[in-house]
Structures are given as C-alpha cells and as structure tokens.
What we know:
This protein is α+β, with helices and mostly antiparallel strands. It is built from 27 helices and 12 strands. The strands form 4 sheets. Strands 4-3-2-1-5 form a 5-stranded antiparallel β-sheet. A 3-stranded antiparallel β-sheet has the order 6-10-7. β2 (94-99) and β3 (103-107) form a beta hairpin. The N and C termini lie far apart (169 Å).
Amino acid sequence: MRIPLLALTAVICLALPSFAQEAAPLDPQEIQTVTPELSGLAKVLAENAAAIARPSRQTIGPVIEAIGASGPGAAAFLEAWAEKRVGQRKDGAFFLIEKTAAGWALSDPVTGAAAGEAAKAEITELKPNSGVRGLISSALVAFQLNDPDPAKRRAALEALARVGAAEHLEPLRASIAGETDPALRAQKDRLERLITIRYGSSTEKRVAAIESFGADLGLDLRAALNPLVATTRKAFAAAPEGNVAQTLRPGREISADEAYQLLVDQGLAPARLTRAELRAALEAHVVEGSVGGVALAELADPARRDAAYTALEAAGTVPAAATDDEVAAAVAAHRYADLYAEPDRAVTTAAAAALKRITLKVDAMQAADLGLDALSLASIYFLAAIGLAITFGVMGVINMAHGEFITLGAYTGYVVQQYISDYTISILVALPLAFLVTFAAGVAMERLVIRHLYKRPLETLLATFGISIALQQIFKNIFGTQARPLTSPPWLDGAWALNDVVSISYIRIAIFVLALVFLGVFLFVMKRTRLGLEVRAVTQNPSMAASMGINPDRINMLTFGLGSGIAGVAGVAIGLFAKVTSELGADYIVQSFMTVVVGGVGNIWGTLAGAGLIGTLQKGIEWLNPSNTLAAQTYMILFIIVFIQFRPRGIIALKGRAAGD
Length: 661
C-alpha cells in the first residue's frame, strides 16, 4: 500500500511545475499589440500603396481624388508628392522625406511630425511623371484657392485657367465669397464664368455666363468660346442629325469631290476609281475580245468602260471602287452638313452672337491700334524733321547731312552711357549734351561751308552730301560698323495696353511727348523771344532786317545751329528703339525731307501735318500689305509725287512775301 501511495505522490510532484508554468503571467514582450483601425489619409495610402508607388496617368486619377478628400494632411502630402518629396520604406510605409548627410529625414505623412531617419537604401524616392504631376496640381487647386498665401491662390487660379474642368467649379465658387484680395476676387469671378461656359450644369447657366461678358476682348474668353462654335463636316444618308451649323449643297457650299471624299472617309462609299486603275483593271481582264461582256471596240466610250468595270466588280474579279457614274449617284443620294462640336443649340447660338460682337469690337480696336501706330510714327518723323524744317524751311538750305546730325546725337547718348551707368540719369544728361554737341557741329558747318553757298542751292546740296559721306566714315572709324546699344531706362520698358488688341510701347509714348515739347519750345522761341523775331525778320527780308540793325550772318548761324541741335536730340530719342549705327540718320533723311515738303516749306504747322500724313499713309499701306514694308515706302513716295502735282506748296502754304521767295 505504501509503494503505490509513494508513486502517486511522485507523479503529482512532477506535474506541479508544468501547471505552474501554464498559470504564470505572460511576458510583456509576448503580448500581441492590437493595431487600431486606419482612417483618413493613412487608410487611403495603405489601400493604394502599389498605385501610389508606381503611378500611371491613366489610372491614378481616382487615387488622387481619394487622397484629396481624405481630410487632414492631404494637401501637404499631395504637394510633397508633386515636388518629389515622398518616399516609401521597404515595409511599404510612406513618409515625407528630406535629404540629410546620412540619408533621409522622415516625417509622418498625416501629421507632419518627425519620424526619425533612414538610410538611403531603405527608402525609395517617388518620382511621378509630368502627367501625374498635372493631375496632382489639379487636385491641389481646391486647397490652394483658400490658402492664406495670396501667391498660392494666384498660382491656383493660373493652373485653373489652363486645366479648369467641371469638378473645379464648386470649389472655385465656394472660395469667391471669402476672398479678401479685390484683384484675386475679380479673377476668381471671371474664371468661374469662363469655366461655366464650358462645363456649366445647365443651358441657362452657360448662356448667362456667355452673355455676362458682353463684347469683352479677353483672349481667355475667345479661347472659351471658339471650341463651342468649332464645326466638323459630315455626310448623312438622310436628314442631318445633331446641332447643325450649316447645310451643304454639292456644287455650291461643298464641291462634289469633297462630298464624295466625306463619304469615303465615313465608310459610306468605296474609294474612287482612278483612270489609271480603271485602265489597268480592264487590260488585265480581256477575254476573247471583250471585258466584262463589253466588246473592246466599245471601250472608247467612257460609259461603256464604267459598265465593263461594274460587271467585273459584280463578278468579284476586281476590288470594289466607284466609277464616275457611281460617284455622282452616291453624292446625290446623301446629305451634308457642318455640325457644331457643342450639342446644345442655345449655347452655340449665344457663343456665335458673342463672337460676332467681339469681332466687331476687335475690328474697331485694330483700327484704333493702327491709328496709335500711325501717330507714333508721325511723332518720330516730326521729331526727325523739325530741325530740317528750320534749316530747309526757314533758311532754304538743303542740308543732306541732317541725318548725320541725328546719328551724332545717338552716338552722344551711347558715349554718355559708357560713363553713367544709371540709364535714367544718362538719358537726362544725354539729351542736353546731344543738343550742345550737334549745335556746335552745325555752327561749325555753317561758318565753314554753308555761309559761302547761300542762294546757291545746287552747290549747297552737293557740299552737304559730301559732308554726309565724310561723317558716316568718321563714325565707322570711331565706333565701328557694329550696332551700339543705347539703352532706355527701366521705366520705359514694356507697353501701355488698353486691352488685348490696343497697345503702344512706353518709348513711343515718350517720343510723342518729346515731339510735343519741342513743338512748344519752337513756337515759344519763334513767337516769344527776340531771337525768333529776328529769325522771322531775316527770313522774310534779309536786307530790311540788316537795315534795322539785325546781323543776318549771326541769325543764320544760330538758326542752323538750332536746327542741328534739335536733330541731335531726335537722335537720342530714335536711338532708344533703333539700332545705333553710322547709317541711322540715312534711314530718316528721306522721310524728313518729304515731311517738310509735303507739309509746306517754312511752316512748323505744315511740318506737323506732313508728319501726320506720311505716318498715317505708311502705316495704312503696311496694314494692307504687311509682308512687304519696302512696297509701302514705294507706294508712299508715288503718292507724294502725285500729291505735290496738285499742291506744290504743301498742305499749309506760306502766304505773303515769304511765299513769293
């Protein structure tokens, strides 16, 4: 009895440690952590990890939309993804990454909190292509439209202007009410209407958006309207279906050949049989003196040849092709029309009406723009000719070197800019300095040459022509043959634009103002100063002026110098937009003489009228023939020759004793 009891006790003792082991508390490391359920951005990233790691433009769109709608962190993740700042760890987790010396600094894609660092080998950098980045940019628009940074809101609007779609309308409309920047608010409102034109939810909204612009000349509006009225040409077996822009009748709005080609393109008729193909087919199927049951002797008749081919076609020995008779029959059996790409007729009607209004306004604005160009050119010619109006119109001296005084003024401005780097100050210095330099050159020329040749116009012309050639060579020796830069101040860069059609450069405006200033200065000198009184006296009667104590030689010298000085100032102004070379003045000497002669010799108002006439005429001819500016100048010269035949004294002729001289 004792032995079994001992054995039972031993078995119980051996079993106790195993029970104790099973009942002992679990090690904390062995406790399995319960993973919380993912939500928001983290859930979207986890469910679409493969698509995000290797995105395709054709399939990634729904994933991007899901990310955009996932809530907090979505905008930051999309922006980082577009900028290639997203990486995937080997375990599939995504992080926002920044390069460091050791590898990558990681941030949580949802919260942006730091998530440690990783070696370069552990992270795969995501690099979406341009197509995917474009989709990401579109998705970011909804966030960026309400971004606190105005620059980001402006960038979002620019992106919408390029790729705006129906899904952007609601976010855009929602952002308008809270926009605090007036310019951005106006831009949002305009963009909302432009996108509504294309993708509005109802016909009424689209038509209202079109009509809200009136005759607006914006290129963005025309870009939105033109696709609505774009047409495609189609053929129909019965009455045309769809939004018909125009029905087409063969032989009138569309040729028979074009109509049949439409049938071929749409698979409604076989390709047309050419003469060469017909001949080859008939020659290849001659059987016992006939082709398709038609005797060879009858094949001289085109109709019988067509019949022979039709028989071969029915027998299946030649491919299907249309003969002339079949082409005519097929063309007559179908209807043709131009169809709008936009199916809604009310929208296309409103778009066509809007484009008609815009076209009328564009034509008017183009006329205004042409008028501004003509006014600008007239001011240039007047500025170049006002000095010649003094020397030639008042003194009667034909100065062929007048153009070289213009060139001398331009080179003076160039030299000044070599020493004064500030372009505004350099121009302010160059204008009076150019006047002084060319005034001195004109006085020297008058004292040394011109005063010996008064009343001898032919010798004056030859002498000044020789001086002109000599001055051109001197300029080449000093400054070379390369064009020298005469840079305008920064505030003269760009152009004043009234709208997308009418614009004029600020340099041209400055030249126009300068021409008016010199007109005022000239009138003041001639009408309000003693010098002007003496000049008018010497011009009208030198002998009588001399008997009154006026020195005609001194007056002639100062007058010639004044005209030369004004030419120098004109050179600085012209050099701001033209190439400064030794031939600069030669480009304006002919127009200057024409301006003075057509306007009326000796009359400043005539010079102004002549400049206006020549500038308008040249721009008008260039508009009619824009590809050939040389022809414009030729026609202009011919017109002036005819004009002088009818008004030899010019537009505003001198009266009294001066006219007789």
